[in-house]
Specification:
About 70% of the residues lie in helices and about 0% in strands. The chain is built from nine helices and no strands. α3 packs antiparallel against α8.
């Protein structure tokens, strides 16, 4: 059945985009706009938290330099210490909430991507959840899943063929996110070898703080890039749904109902 939005260029009398999509995709696709807004807010707060960590790191490094040359004393650290404690108190609960909401959004996006391109994914849908908590594979499975959703959700040209959309923002998001994880792990390892009771360790502490600050800067960039990824991917799927006219949406719904009726009839015949 022709969708009416583009010329029917396939034997099924549908455009290429509808032909490669699942039957009834237009009626079944549920845009993730509301979830995306929640993710924007949480990622924005994460970005501000990371920016605060960068400020705290630079401030601490400067104070340690002044302490080493005798132009500052330990009382000067009270303000930056309060800032660091406040950031640390918020970081873990915020990270957990952000992760949960992001994964829920990601799962919805993958459901939609399965409708748009059922056979265009390298990993099963369950990995949109499991990939984030599975050791080692979390370093590249989420990336593959996101790229596949991005490509499946790409806008269509005049004939209904998917257009290639730049993936630079995906590369920026994932590289800075993985970089932040690696740099923070290095900083944690360095901190174990810092003896805070020895004045000679001040330089070692400064080096550790600089590495931590670099990790926070990477986290900041990753959060901002993630906001862009969420916005663009959600918008692409919304545009795909809104791209076809009401007649096409109704046609897709009828096709889905016919497919269900046929399946029920086959089940009864086999019973």
């Amino acid at each position: 059945m022709a969708c009416g939005a583009r010329p029917a260029g396939t034997e099924s009398r549908r455009c290429f985009g509808c032909a490669e999509a699942a039957p009834g995709w237009a009626a079944a696709l549920r845009p993730a706009n509301s979830l995306a807004i929640a993710v924007y807010v949480l990622l924005g707060v994460n970005a501000m938290l990371a920016a605060g960590a960068v400020v705290a790191g630079l401030w601490s490094d400067a104070l340690l330099g002044q302490l080493a040359d005798g132009s500052a004393d330990l009382d000067d650290f009270d303000a930056v210490d309060s800032l660091v404690k406040g950031l640390n108190g918020v970081f873990l609960p915020l990270a957990l909430v952000t992760a949960v909401v992001f994964i829920i959004w990601f799962y919805r996006i993958r459901q939609n991507a399965d409708l748009l391109l059922p056979h265009g994914h390298r990993r099963g849908r369950g990995w949109t959840i499991g990939a984030w908590v599975t050791p080692f594979v979390l370093l590249w499975f989420p990336w593959q899943l996101m790229v596949d959703c991005w490509r499946a959700s790409a806008p269509l040209d005049a004939e209904g063929r998917r257009r290639a959309v730049s993936e630079k923002v995906l590369v920026l998001w994932w590289s800075t996110w993985i970089g932040a994880l690696v740099v923070n792990r290095i900083a944690s390892s360095m901190m174990k070898h810092v003896n805070l009771t020895v004045l000679d360790s001040l330089e070692d502490l400064r080096e550790t703080i600089r590495v931590e600050t670099a990790g926070s800067a990477l986290r900041l960039v990753a959060a901002v890039a993630a906001i862009v990824v969420v916005q663009r991917l959600t918008a692409m799927q919304w545009a795909r749904r809104a791209d076809i006219n009401p007649l096409a949406a109704r046609a897709a719904q009828v096709a889905a109902e016919e497919a269900r009726a046929q399946a029920q009839a086959q089940a009864k015949a086999q019973a």
